[in-house]
Amino acid sequence: MPELSRRRALTAAAVLASAAGAVPALTPAAAAADPHHGAPRAFDEVYKGRRIQGRPATGSGHHQHGAGYAVFVDGVELHVMRNADGSWISVVSHYDPVPTPRAAARAAVDELQGAPLLPFPAN
């Protein structure tokens, strides 16, 4: 029987830890999705005094990174993008992926700290 080395033990622990963390990370995104199409549900709420909205995008906008989904903070579009793993990022909190577009809008409001969201210039 091969001897258990430190490297094998650490590799096994890393694999188990990453597998255990992957399932909960995917669960919130799946729960917030439309059961018929897998797309995120529309939302409209006030979060920390700011109105955040999200809905499936209509028409052909200049950016399709959001997988056909539009998010707004106080009526100004917040550009969002869906990552390959199903998480979402925004132009405001680009390095902090979240499970849903609603969470991306909330993270943007947190980052803005009361500052207005300025329109993102089109190319």
UniProtKB/TrEMBL annotation:
Family annotation (NCBIfam families): TyroCdyMelC1
Signal peptide: 1-32
Pfam families: MelC1
InterPro entries: GriE/MELC1_sf (IPR023199), MelC1 (IPR010928), TAT_signal (IPR006311)
Family indicated by similarity: Belongs to the melC1 family.
The species this protein was found in: Streptomyces levis
Keywords assigned: Copper, Signal
This protein's name: Tyrosinase
